Amino acid sequence: MxxxxxxxxxxxxxxxxxxxxxxxxxxxxxxPPQNPEVPVNLIKVKEQRVLYYDKYPSTTQALSxxxxxxxxxxxxxxxxxxxxxxxxxxxxxxEIDKRIYQANYDQAIxxxxxxxxxxxxxxxxxxxxxxxxxxxxxxxQLYDHAIITLENxxxxxxxxxxxxxxxxxxxxxxxxxxPFDGTIGFSMVKLGDVVNxxxxxxxxxxxxxxxxxxxIINEKQLPHFEQLQNSSKRAPDSLFTILLADNSLYPYxxxxxxxxxxxxxxxxxxxxxxxxxxxxxxxRVGMSCVVRIHNQDTEPQLVLPSKxxxxxxxxxxxxxxxxxxxxxxxxxxxxxxxxxxxxIQKKVQVGQTIGSNVIVKSGINNGDRIVxxxxxxxxxxxxxxxxxxxxxxxxxxxx
Length: 399
Description:
Elements: H1 2-30, E1 38-39, E2 41-44, E3 47-48, E4 53-61, E5 65-68, E6 74-79, E7 86-87, E8 92-96, H2 99-134, H3 140-173, E9 175-177, E10 182-184, E11 194-195, E12 203-206, E13 211-218, H4 222-230, E14 240-243, E15 255-259, E16 269-276, E17 288-294, E18 301-305, E19 310-312, E20 315-326, E21 338-354, E22 357-362, E23 369-373, E24 383-385, H5 392-395
Parallel strand pairs: 1-24
Antiparallel strand pairs: 2-23, 3-18, 4-13, 4-17, 5-12, 6-8, 6-11, 7-10, 8-9, 10-12, 13-16, 14-17, 15-16, 18-22, 19-20, 20-21, 21-22, 21-24
Helix pairs in contact: 2-3
């Protein structure tokens, strides 16, 4: 019995050994080669003059804008403009019920006339008593009283005159006029609404032409904009332009009007105001647009495709190709050394984006060879090839 089991056990042991060898052989065949060369495309950096614009989000603002507030209490009895239309300075806009203010004014006029009559009578009495006093023909007390009465009558006339002015002012406030030329908005009140001074907003008027465009810059850019403001007379006409919300170019150019008084201590930013002509009323207050500031730097700059730049935690890097010399093994027939390519990761400072390209301000040099395709598969020191055994667009990324 023992002899019959030995051949079976030997056969199982032999099969196990053969299977293990096959598995080890298969694993060895599937192992990738050490340090494979990554297929990439390279570009040689060359300095060139570029035309671009620095862009800033901005908002249109009126140079003059005012909320119309009533100065008296009453109901609205008249509206004399077209909402959203253009109004002229001094144009009649609203009328508030003025009957009570007209009555107060008429009463003040009547009181003034009475005061003037009393003053005339007091003046006559004072003149008479002054004449009699010269000849000691009247008691001194009566003379003094006449002078005091005259002075009181004069003060009463002045007080009545001031009351007339106040009543006239309130009566004039019953009609609201446009303070300047501009566009008026939707009326906040309707006929019959009761308005109160200081709380009720009737409407808003803003100027149209010219119009302001405000945007925010970092305080580090402030010296540059101060220089632009000081040299505005020598600046080209196309220095400041704006793109509208539909990405169309506004047909007029602007100029720096105001640099704000102070930097915001919390954000480190400051507001700049440009002024643009607006004869066709294409710009409305509150519109969003983009300010474009023409680049005035005429020096050649380094430009790379944006896809060549890798961002890592807010910092930017590129891969620069370098030649290296690798000695072949002894088993190789070729005994000469052969050049190979590897990449070095370099940190760069990027500038303005121009279409699909980006300006590189520092970190690389003119003439450097930069990887533009296949950067996703690279790390510092990776070996690369430009033979494109696997096209970067297809095989650059491993899935």
